[in-house]
């Protein structure tokens, strides 16, 4: 039987982000065909596609046969997400295609400028067939994403909820603007938001959430729908409880370790981002100063006869060298964004641990309460006062109660104990359920994190290699020019 | 012809266009030729006879041209190296001496190989003598006495090595120069034992230095030529512009070194951060440690690259800054005097020669720098490629990824 050739995919599309899925398909086609990486021969349109993908995703895709596997490695993250195959992603292609500025009146009736992002949903089959049906789309602003995430946090406290891209630009090196309106920042945020949606859509539990689905499909009225769930009340009480200090008597060792890990991860990634930003700043300086060589060589060539040509052309290469740092650092920003995602994931992990602690604490409180009520009943029943209580003292001072009063009290206590036992049972079940679900998700998260970060390190190496190759080229060219001096 | 009696009484003044007094030490004016310069020619037969026109074979200019021809014919016959710095401690002071080795086929030298030890002071002395004797010629600069701005200690290893290289270049420039290399002082510098050199240095102003005075006076006249030929003006303008450009290059290069050093400071913290992270991880520990190692290795390469710039490119640029400064000063005085055209020609020939040497020096310095930069990037490339390779083999080994 004739082997089906890999499908020719359109490189041109209105949304550069939809390229994502096309490329994923490309890779899955190739890997399923079990082609050797060295034999990864691509049609021209596929090459264009990958090149466009590389640009938008900030990964460097090289054509070297030996590095052919890098095509797939860098895309593996998204590929995995699709291959994991939540039913949602199997059906729909999700992307955040564009960003636009809007102005309007805000809650306090002041004029404000904000950015909205276009979410596009496209049925999967249509895309691969090359037809271009108009996607379902709607505009959302960052605050709505925040609302969605808060809802998910409250509704699924035992899950490590994917983080949003940062609210404000942090860990910037001086050339980058920290301004939220800066087009580069907006672009990186767009990528981050899309990533967030894909993460949620590929999560086995989160992807089935109705509020999430309507976020993607119902432009108007979504906010009301969310508030109707009443999650805010839960959110408020949870928040209060979490912010209060409490000590758990028997902390779960695994969760304590996980929380500690979350702390360490957050600390070390922060440090890495800081150091990287400073190094980027310095590297920028090194490259840009070489631009001065260009200028001086050019001026010098004007006063020389034989040396003139060599100097002039060497100068051009120095200018090219100085200019090359902009692309290099832009690629590095993508790496920084990958790290940032896990910086914020660390926070999400810690949140789960904290919520578990709270659950545990509430169980312990309920159990404690039950024990004390049981004790009270015993004392009341046997007439012995073992525990010091105000009631005991006042009754001593003001005389014992009547048998009727005691009867009434006993009855109340019985009810309370019954309720208490129910509560403890409930809380216990809650706790167990929490632990079970949380631990499953934490394992899933661990695997995802190990995989993603390893890929990030690989893409960092690829970036460095690309930078070195550019440097070799420029300086070889310069050397040739110098030897003609 | 110089003051007093000593050399070259064979010089005939009969046919010269102007009467040349026997003792011209006090007189600066009106010389068509400077006989004095002839004294330094080793070949006295050239002084036989006649008029001292610029075009004549006997003029210093033509002599330079002769030597130039020889140089072009690739007959380098004297090789000098400066190496092996050693520290000497006496009751009064501590100083460094360098070994100066000479290999030559020149007949003026008693032997073909020499080895002496010289200190910086000796080099200074030599340069001074050469400049006195040939004020119109262009001498290569010596490294400065000490570097003030960097607060470099005199006996710091890097400083000594940088100085050694510069001294080596200085002597080689002299050896390659047709007139300087024939200097008696140069010969003594290369061959005399320390004691001999000291006593030679101590020799009273002698005819040579009196010669120097005269020549200086003449040189002042040279500088002050009123109707300068156009080439002279062009040279001035060129020197001015060149001086600016080479200074800029020097500054730019120093700035690059500074920026690289600051980059290095930050980069040095990256590796340890990855290493720290690897301690919290299980699966990720190995790739993180690997990356930490790669970053550290790149740091080392960057350090070396910075050192290369400082050791090789900057000293050469700096020497030409000094050179340009010296050249500028020669054109300072504006005394209206006459057209000592032969002097101009001598200057012009040496000038042409200097330009050629400058071009060679700077070209090879920049080519060298470019090569080192290529090598730097190649080494870093290898570091990161080995990381990629390790990740691939690891993944294959763990059966995680099917690369088939």
Question: Any descriptors?
Answer:
heterodimer; A: 485 residues; mainly alpha; PX Domain; Substrate Binding Domain Of Dnak, Chain:A, Domain 2; 14 helices; 3 strands; 7% strand; B: 404 residues; disordered C terminus
Helix and strand topology:
The complex is a heterodimer of chains A (485) and B (404).
Chain A lengths: L18 H14 L11 H14 L11 H16 L2 H5 E14 L5 E13 H5 L7 E6 H14 L27 H19 L8 H8 L4 H7 L2 H13 L9 H51 L4 H75 L7 H9 L4 H81 L2
Antiparallel strand pairs in A: 1-2, 2-3
Helix pairs in contact in A: 1-2, 1-3, 3-14, 6-10, 11-12, 12-14
Chain B lengths: L34 H5 L20 H13 L5 E12 L4 E11 L8 E7 H14 L23 H20 L7 H8 L2 H9 L3 H18 L6 H49 L6 H46 L10 H57 L7
Antiparallel strand pairs in B: 1-2, 2-3
Helix pairs in contact in B: 2-10, 8-9, 9-10
Describe, in plain words, how this protein is organized in 3D.
Chain B: It comes from Sinocyclocheilus rhinocerous. Chain B: This is PX domain-containing protein. The complex is a heterodimer of chains A (485) and B (404). Chain A contains 14 helices and 3 strands. Chain A has 485 residues and is mostly helical. Chain A has 3 domains: 17-73, no CATH class; 84-235, Phox-like domain (PX Domain), CATH 3.30.1520; 249-382 and 410-485, Substrate Binding Domain Of Dnak, Chain:A, Domain 2, CATH 1.20.1270. Chain A has a 3-stranded antiparallel β-sheet. In chain A, α11 (253-303) packs antiparallel against α12 (308-382). The longest helix of chain A is centred in the C-terminal third of the chain and has 81 residues, at 403-483. Chain A is elongated, with a radius of gyration of 31 Å. Chain A starts with 18 loop residues before the first helix and ends with a helix. Chain B has 404 residues and is mostly helical. Chain B has a domain at 227-398: Substrate Binding Domain Of Dnak, Chain:A, Domain 2 (Up-down Bundle), CATH 1.20.1270. Helices cover 59% and strands 7% of the residues of chain B. Chain B has a 3-stranded antiparallel β-sheet with strand order 1-2-3. The longest helix of chain B has 57 residues, at 341-397. The radius of gyration of chain B is 28 Å and the shape is elongated. At the A-B interface, α11 and α14 of A face α8, α9 and α10 of B.
